[in-house]
C-alpha cells in the first residue's frame, strides 16, 4: 500500500526500468531501510544543548544584549538605581576635577604707576593743569535771520538819515573834561 | 518637559526596546526549539543516508540547526520549514562528504550490521544482509552525483517530487528524468556485478 502511495507521489515506479533484469525493489529496499532508520536516543536534547552553547560562543552580540536586557527587565528600581549611579559618577568626576585644579592665587607684585611723575616734572610729561572736558552735544543755536538787502522804504530812509545825523552831531559836541571822577559822562 | 524628564524617558525607551528585543529573541529560540523537536529525526535520516555514520549525521544535524540559529531573522519568512530544513542539512551533508574520504565498503558493512533492525534474523543472516546493503550502497556511490542525489532523496517517503525539486533547486521534470536515469543505471550496475560473481 505504501508503495502504491509512493507511486502517486514521486512516480518512482512509473518510469520503469526498461528490459533490465534487476528488480528495482532490490536497491529501493536498501535506500528505504536507511531512510526509515530511527534517530538515536537523546538526539533532540543534544541538539538543544549544542544550540545553547552555540548561542553563547558564536553569537557574542547576543551576550551584550543579554546584559543590557537583564538590567532592564521589569525592574524599575534597578533602572532608577542605574540612573542615580550614572549621575553620581558624573557629578563626582566633575567635583574631583574642579577640586584638583584651583585657580592661581593673585600675585604679590603689583604694577604701580610712578607716583608724582606728572606733578614734580622729573619724568614724563605733565598735563600743565589742563582738564579734559568731555564732548557734549551742542545746544540749539538760534540763528538771526540774515538781511542781505534791507528794505528801503521812504519812512525807513528818513529814520536812518535822522539817526546818522544825530550820531554825527554827538561826536562833534564833546563834553568838557573835568577832574571830578564822579561827574557823569556821556557817550 | 524638563531635561531630567527627557533623559529619564530616553532611558526608559532604551530599556523598553531592549526588553522588546529580548522578547523577540526568546520567541525565536522557542521557535527553533520547536523545529528541533519536530524535525531532528527527519534531518538525521537525511544526513545518515549520505554520510552513513551516526556520529557524523548527528554533527550534521547540529550544524544545520546552528545555521538556522544564525539566520533566525528569516525564519518567519520561510514558507515550508520542513523542506527548508532538509535543504539546509542536505547542503551541510554534501559539504562534509566532499571533505571526507571515500568510505570503504567494509565500514559500511560494519555500520549497517550495527543499525539494521534485528527482526528475528540470526547473526549470519544479519551479516549477509549488511553485506548486501553495503554492496547496493556501493553501487549508489558509483552513480553520477545528480542522479545519486535524486535517487537517495526519493527513498524518503515524506518527500514528494515537488519537494525534492525544491531541496535540490531544480524543476520537477528534472527530478523525474534524473530519477529515471538513476534507476536504469542502478539496475545496470547490479546486473553487471551479479554477472561478475
Features:
heterodimer, A: 187 residues, mainly alpha, 7 helices, 52% helix, B: 197 residues, Rna Polymerase Sigma Factor, Chain: A
Q: If you had to describe this structure to a student in words, what would you say it looks like?
A:
The complex is a heterodimer of chains A (187) and B (197). Chain A is an all-alpha fold. Chain A has seven helices and no strands. Chain A has a domain at 23-98. Chain A has helices at 2-10, 24-35, 43-57, 60-72, 76-100, 117-120, 154-172. The radius of gyration of chain A is 63 Å and the shape is elongated. The N and C termini of chain B lie far apart (93 Å). With 197 residues, chain B is an all-alpha fold. Chain B has eight helices and no strands. The chains are: A mainly alpha (187), B mainly alpha (197). At the A-B interface, helix 1, helix 2, helix 3 and helix 4 of A face helix 1, helix 2, helix 5, helix 6 and helix 8 of B.
Summarize the structure.
The complex is a heterodimer of chains A (187) and B (197). Chain A has helices at 2-10, 24-35, 43-57, 60-72, 76-100, 117-120, 154-172. Chain A is mostly helical and 187 residues long.
Give the SSE map:
The complex is a heterodimer of chains A (187) and B (197).
Chain A: H1 2-10, H2 24-35, H3 43-57, H4 60-72, H5 76-100, H6 117-120, H7 154-172
Chain B: H1 3-51, H2 54-70, H3 81-99, H4 105-115, H5 123-141, H6 145-154, H7 161-168, H8 172-196
Helix pairs in contact in B: 1-2, 1-3, 2-3, 3-7, 4-5, 6-8, 7-8
Mean pLDDT of chain B: 82
What is the largest interface, and how many residues per chain? A-B, 51 and 62 residues
Contiguous runs where pLDDT drops below 50 for at least 5 residues of chain B = none
Q: If classified by CATH, what would the architecture of one domain in chain B be?
A: Orthogonal Bundle
Share in β-strands of chain B: under 5%
Helical fraction of chain A equals: 40-55%
Task: Extract low-pLDDT stretches of chain A.
Answer: 1-21
Largest sheet of chain A: none
Report, as a whole number of angstroms, the end-to-end distance of chain A: 164 Å
Question: What general outline of chain A do the C-alpha atoms trace?
Answer: elongated
The number of distinct helices of chain A, counting runs of at least 4 residues, comes to 7
Amino acid at each position: 500500500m505504501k508503495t502504491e502511495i509512493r507511486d502517486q507521489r514521486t512516480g518512482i515506479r512509473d518510469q520503469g526500468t526498461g528490459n533490465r533484469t534487476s528488480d528495482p525493489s532490490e536497491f529501493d529496499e536498501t535506500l528505504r531501510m536507511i531512510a526509515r532508520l530511527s534517530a538515536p536516543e537523546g538526539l533532540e536534547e543534544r541538539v538543544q544543548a549544542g544550540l545553547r552553547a552555540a548561542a553563547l560562543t558564536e553569537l557574542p552580540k547576543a551576550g551584550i544584549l543579554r546584559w543590557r536586557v537583564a538590567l532592564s527587565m521589569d525592574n524599575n528600581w534597578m533602572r532608577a538605581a542605574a540612573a542615580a549611579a550614572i549621575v553620581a559618577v558624573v557629578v563626582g568626576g566633575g567635583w574631583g576635577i574642579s577640586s584638583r585644579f584651583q585657580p592661581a592665587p593673585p600675585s604679590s607684585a603689583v604694577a604701580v604707576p610712578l607716583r608724582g611723575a606728572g606733578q614734580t616734572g622729573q619724568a614724563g610729561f605733565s598735563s600743565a593743569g589742563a582738564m579734559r572736558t568731555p564732548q557734549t552735544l551742542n545746544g540749539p543755536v538760534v540763528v538771526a535771520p540774515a538781511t542781505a538787502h534791507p528794505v528801503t522804504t521812504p519812512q525807513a530812509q528818513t529814520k536812518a538819515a535822522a539817526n546818522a545825523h544825530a550820531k554825527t552831531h554827538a561826536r562833534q559836541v564833546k563834553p568838557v573834561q573835568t577832574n571830578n571822577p564822579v561827574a557823569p559822562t556821556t557817550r | 518637559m524638563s531635561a531630567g524628564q527627557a533623559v529619564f524617558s530616553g532611558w526608559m525607551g532604551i530599556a523598553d526596546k531592549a526588553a522588546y528585543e529580548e522578547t523577540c529573541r526568546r520567541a525565536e529560540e522557542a521557535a527553533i526549539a520547536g523545529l528541533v523537536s519536530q524535525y531532528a529525526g527527519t534531518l538525521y535520516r537525511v544526513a545518515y543516508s549520505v554520510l552513513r555514520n551516526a556520529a557524523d549525521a548527528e554533527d550534521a544535524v547540529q550544524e544545520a540547526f546552528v545555521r538556522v540559529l544564525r539566520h533566525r531573522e528569516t525564519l518567519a519568512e520561510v514558507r515550508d520549514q520542513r523542506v527548508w530544513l532538509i535543504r539546509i542539512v542536505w547542503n551541510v551533508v554534501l559539504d562534509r562528504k566532499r571533505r571526507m574520504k571515500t568510505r570503504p565498503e567494509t565500514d559500511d558493512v560494519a555500520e549497517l550490521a550495527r543499525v539494521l533492525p534485528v527482526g528475528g534474523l540470526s547473526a549470519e543472516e544479519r551479516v549477509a544482509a549488511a553485506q548486501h546493503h553495503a554492496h547496493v550502497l556501493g553501487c549508489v556511490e558509483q552513480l553520477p552525483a545528480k542522479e545519486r542525489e535524486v535517487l537517495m532523496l526519493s527513498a524518503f517517503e515524506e518527500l514528494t517530487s515537488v519537494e525534492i525539486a525544491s531541496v535540490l533547486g531544480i524543476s520537477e521534470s528534472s527530478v523525474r528524468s534524473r530519477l529515471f536515469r538513476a534507476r536504469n543505471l542502478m539496475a545496470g550496475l547490479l546486473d553487471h556485478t551479479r554477472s561478475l560473481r
